[in-house]
Specification:
By secondary structure, the protein is mainly β. The protein has 2 domains: 300 residues, Tachylectin-2, Chain A (5 Propeller); 147 residues, Exo-inulinase, domain 1 (Jelly Rolls, Sandwich), CATH 2.60.120. Helix content is 0%, strand content 51%. It binds beta-D-fructofuranose.
Amino acid sequence: MLYQEKHRPQLHFTPKENWINDPNGLVYYEGEYHLFYQRNPHSNDHADMHWGHATSTDLYHWEEHGIALAPDELGTIFSGSAVVDKNNTSGLFESASGGLVAIFTHDGESQQQSIAYSEDKGRTWIKYEGNPVIPNTKIKDFRDPKVSWHEDSKKWVMALACGDHIQFYNSPNLIDWTYLSSFGKEYPSHIGVWECPDLLYLPVEGSSKKEWVLIVSINADGPNGGSAVYYFTGSFDGKVFHPNEKPEDALKWADAGKDFYAAVSWDNTEDTYWIGWMSNWQYAGVMPVSPWRSAMSLARKISLYEKDGNLLLKQTPVIADNRKEAASYQDVTIQPDTAESYAISDTAQIDLRISEASSSTKWGVKFVTDQEEVFQLAIDTQENTYTFYRTEGMIDFSEEFPEEIKGTLNGLDVQNLTAIVDRSSVELFLNNGLTVSTNLIYPQGTVTQLEVFAVNDVLQIDNVSWTQLKSIWN
Ligand code: FRU
């Protein structure tokens, strides 16, 4: 039965069948969050790209709709964004209160930027007859326009991925675009191409400040190999992005796991939310699932947190469920080289709060299946690292899949951990989401057990709990 297959995510968006990749056209409009996405409606491979479509009222339960944008004589439909043209700046709408405009890449003989508009809440789209609105400029990789309204200059601003840099453009009407500036050639890494940029203006937690953040997805050379998302903080004056980071201290990973890519934010929301594609170009095409291929991450609320003058991205997963805590334990003490075990399900949220009095600097958690496969998170606060072991289960479909996936704790002691387990993925949020790692797993069995272990010294836990999360498809 659909949505009941062995590795089918129960808490994450997947299409009923066939291929998806990047989230596209994320926009909130008249009570609905729209999730468009790269879509091959005909098979389980990356080919013949369309935009698929789903909507949600809570960023958690999704309803899949039909194809939104299909290929035409200018090419297939690559990634892009959508905005609410509230004041009908484009003049494309009959009504003065406008509607939705999608800005996307046509991938044909070359890559060019085009637009389409919808007068029925994103269900059907009319392509603008003057497409492309930004013709190709001989740059081979010229794609993934992310557009938002820039209040100070009263213009639409576009960030565009151009191989080894990001270009910025602006427009009064979403049709006539002016090149503004370029950023990034001198910044690492250029082993893979830059893709799917986003320009965000995010609140700094605990202050009234807001700061600019430039998101870039790089399709190779991530911290654990392959694709990954990183970010710069800085300022944006409507024309030029000025980074805080110098080239030698750049590369702040939004998510240091192997399976969080092409993440972009929703337009037209008060708080900022984003979502990523839960895969990696290293093995996206051979993942052992069908009749669908691949999932989105959970949507996450994002903000900034300042630590010693350094701005870090903070992410909180959105789980809009009637949640029922299944079990909760207070004041747990774990002796060195021992573990506590708890029965859990394979669609679960685990929350762990470490006591300030705890002295263990090496500890972790294991997710164990009924076939004794182990997926382990090991924390080493002295080394300032963590490692997620994805070396068991089905791993031989790609040499790049089995991995000890490492990340930095950003110089923070670990105070808490939230882990979302969903059959074939584990999303780890350490320290309230200042350190995040998203990873797919393909166990032969079913996760049934959580083990919390201490390696050195006593691990003192204030609270460990798990919550059973119901399938979003029922
Ligand atoms: C990122 C990406 C984009 C492109 C799309 C094609 O994963 O390569 O740059 O627009 O996928 O499906």
